[in-house]
Write a structure and sequence with these properties.
The complex is a heterodimer of chains A (115) and B (113). With 115 residues, chain A is an all-beta fold. Helices cover 0% and strands 56% of the residues of chain A. The chains are: A mainly beta (115), B mainly beta (113).
């Protein structure tokens, strides 16, 4: 298994749909992240979980709802999205410790299109 | 606020050397990362600088000057496969809970024959 996997890779949904994005990391890391990547914009951090506890929520609208049932899995539940939410959603993980770079390892992303 | 600037696009010739600059203004500083992202793929870690100076790793080197809020990524002996976006990211905070990275918009590098 590769380090960080995401499913689905592509998703098209209507504004009234409910869907979920899934992320799984096989690296034994203790922190997981959701990012949004839109064209011509920087990567935007949405949520951070450390040891399954949410530690960051960067003013993300409530139509995005994260869930972290254990340190290996992370979900992003989507509900009544807007067309401007169309973007690439990236999951990442890292091992937070004072002994290393704490670099983040990214999954391949889910390309989301909201109609 | 946090602000990271890098050129939007660059073009360089195969076999040449290219330098991608990054300047930052952040509320704190606890390390600077460079990531490579090929179109349609995940960003992958290239380098990390927390102290001033040059870090060399094969064909890639990264430089940091904290007093100037400046970093560059140097790519030598360019290959066609180096065509990608290069993302500069700063970790503003340190200590427990310091997980947030602030990213620049990325520099799209095109390597031409």
């Amino acid at each position: 298994e590769t380090g960080v996997t995401q499913t689905p890779r592509h998703l098209v949904m209507g504004m009234t749909n409910k869907k979920s994005l899934k992320c799984e990391q096989h690296l034994g890391h203790n922190a997981m992240y959701w990012y949004k990547q839109s064209a011509k914009k920087p990567l935007e951090l949405m949520f951070v979980y450390n040891f399954k506890e949410q530690t960051e929520n960067n003013s993300v609208p409530s139509r995005f709802s994260p869930e972290c049932p254990n340190s290996s899995h992370l979900f992003l539940h989507l509900h009544t999205l807007q067309p401007e939410d169309s973007a690439l959603y990236l999951c990442a993980s890292s091992q937070e410790s004072s002994l290393n770079y704490n670099e983040q390892f990214f999954g391949p992303g889910t390309r989301l299109t909201v109609l | 606020g946090q602000n990271i600037d890098q050129p939007t696009e660059m073009t360089a010739t195969e076999g040449a050397i290219v330098q991608i600059n990054c300047t930052y203004q952040t509320s704190g500083f606890n390390g600077l990362f460079w990531y490579q992202q090929h179109a349609g793929e995940a960003p992958t870690f290239l380098s990390y600088n927390v102290l001033d100076g040059l870090e060399e790793k094969g064909r890639f080197s990264s430089f940091l000057s904290r007093s100037k809020g400046y970093s560059y990524l140097l790519l030598k002996e360019l290959q066609m496969k180096d065509s990608a976006s290069y993302l500069c990211a700063v970790r503003p905070n340190s200590g427990a809970g310091s997980y947030q990275l602030t990213f620049g918009k990325g520099t799209k590098l095109s390597v031409i024959p």
